[in-house]
Structure formats: C-alpha cells, structure tokens
Amino acid sequence: MSENARATAEGVDAASEDRTCYCPLGGVMDLLSRNYAIQVICVVGTLRPVRYGEIEATFGEVSSSTLSTRLNELTEAGMLARERYAEIPPRVEYDLTTDGEELCELLLPLLRWVEDRGPSEQ
Amino acid sequence: MSENARATAEGVDAASEDRTCYCPLGGVMDLLSRNYAIQVICVVGTLRPVRYGEIEATFGEVSSSTLSTRLNELTEAGMLARERYAEIPPRVEYDLTTDGEELCELLLPLLRWVEDRGPSEQ
DNA sequence: CAGAATCCATTCGGATACTG
DNA sequence: CAGTATCCGAATGGATTCTG
User: Fold this and answer.
1) CA dist B7 to A55, A103, B4, B12, Å?
2) Is there a contact between B27 and A122 if contact means CB atoms under 8 Å apart?
C-alpha cells in the first residue's frame, strides 16, 4: 500500500472501492492466527537453529500434535526450514528461512510490546 | 518504507543468549489471533476516526456479528475507543486508544509485508 | 445506522497412542 | 528423539433475525 492512500472524510463513499483492503489476508496471516504460531517463529528466531525438543521445552504446555502441525504449516509456508540429520538418535533442526527472518523481525517487537504491558487488566 | 527494518542477523543472534519464554501469551495476543482482529486495528488506524459502516464496507465479506464481536473485544482490551453520538440516525465512531496506536504501529508493517509477498508464494 | 442475540456447521487443538 | 494418527470436546465465526 502506498502512503498517498490517505483517508479523508471524503474517502468514505469510496470505501468499498479504492481503498486498501486488508481483508484478503494471505495464507501467512491465516497461519499466524493459529495457536502458538507467532511464538514459534520468534522462538526459532531466537534460538536458531533449534531442535524440536527445545521448542517443545520452551512451551511447556503445548501438545506435540499441535506443535508439530504448526511447525509443518510454517515450514510449508516457507517461513521455516527443516534440516534432518540421519543420525541415531535422530536429530532435526529448525531454522528461519530468509522470509522467516523478515517475518520474525516484525513479530519480535509485537511480542515484546505485549509482554511489556503485562497481563492487562482487560 | 522505514529504516528500522535493518535489525539483521545481529539482533537475532544477540537474543540467542536469553531464554525468554513467549508461551504465556497475554490476552492481547489471544485477541489478535481472532479472525480479522489485526486488520480491524489497521483499518481503524488508517481511517480514524471511522464509523462502523465504513469498517464493514472495508471488509466486504465479514458478518456483522463477527465484526461486532471483534470490535467489542478490542474496545474492552483498551485498543479501541468507541464514541457514540446521540443523533438520528445513530452514529458511532471508532478510534485507536494510545495503546491501540502503539499496537497499530507494530501491525501495519506486518500487514504490508504480507501484502508485498502476495499470495503467489508457493 | 449500529449493533445484540441466537443457532449451528466448521475448525481447532489437546490427549492419547503409536512409529522410524 | 521427533514426530504422526486418531478421537473428540471446545471454541470460533457465519447466517439470520431482531432492536434502540
């Protein structure tokens, strides 16, 4: 979107036409609204590269199925890269892709801001 | 665009030391993961002050119940302020609170980034 | 106009159990 | 260790209807 897309009182009637529409969120926005998705990005970005177990430990309460699903979704969306090492015991490392890095840079400030205000009194 | 998009790998690496736990997402994170929540913040931030009908028009497809719910949640969370005018026909204007402004500043770059990469990716 | 209330299909995610 | 598969209750959000 461009800076000149400024909204004025007159822009009201053109609301349904010209104006930037944030509605059709891409698949990424959709993914980010899933449980722990944003946190996963940030955890990987903070501990990269990081193993599955570490991520799981970071969120003590998440179920493996949920975390696994989130990891797969973000990997398929091109935000995470999964490196599998043929060792015994198996080792898998997650890291951010270039896109993931960009996203993480945008997400970390958000998370920090949320933390700073603490558990708000609603 | 802004220059602060230059955190680079250094910022990420530096954070590798601390083990901040992002798990306990505050109520705000929870709200943001709801449908259209992030977009609502950004739409209000862009068109402020904005009437209910305008917001609804911006998202052509959202149902009034969903939008209304989101608006209430964000208002109660202190991100939005609702001003009701005793006129006929009734007029209600939504605006960002101070907190909402801060949040919007963090969210807009995210939305722009998502838009820029488009839905064509993968 | 700006919603609130209700109903309900769909989705989401936790628990559990099981593999390579 | 690093997941996947399955089951199922909980939460979500759309459609519809109604109101000040």
Assistant:
1) 23, 12, 7, 8
2) yes
Q: What is the pLDDT of residues A69-116, one digit of tens each?
A: 999 999 999 999 999 999 989 999 999 999 999 999 999 999 999 988
Q: For residue A15, tell me if it sits in a domain.
A: no
* pTM of the predicted model as reported, rounded to 2 decimal places: 0.83
Reduce the DSSP state of residue A80 to 3 states and report it: strand
Residue A90 lies in a domain: yes
CA distance A13 to A91: 57
Contact A113 B102 (CB under 8 A): yes
Task: Kindly state the average pLDDT of the residues B1-27.
Answer: 47
Mutate to test the interface with B, among A2, A16, A22, A47 (most CBs of B within 10 A): A22
> Which candidate from B21, B23, B77 shows the least CB-CB separation from A120?
B77
Domain count of the fold of chain A: 1
The tens digit of pLDDT for each residue in A29-69 reads 999 999 999 999 999 999 999 999 999 999 988 999 999 99
Confidence of residue B13 (pLDDT cuts 50, 70, 90): very low
Residues facing A94 on adjacent strands: A50, A82
* Rounded Cα–Cα distance for residues B27 and B54 (Å): 27
Q: Which residues touch strand C (CB under 7 A)?
A: A 34-35, 61-66, 69, 89-90; B 51-53, 64-65, 68-69, 71-72, 82, 84, 89-92, 94
Q: What is the CATH number of the domain that holds A43?
A: 1.10.10.10
Nearest to B46 among A7, A23, A36 (CB): A7
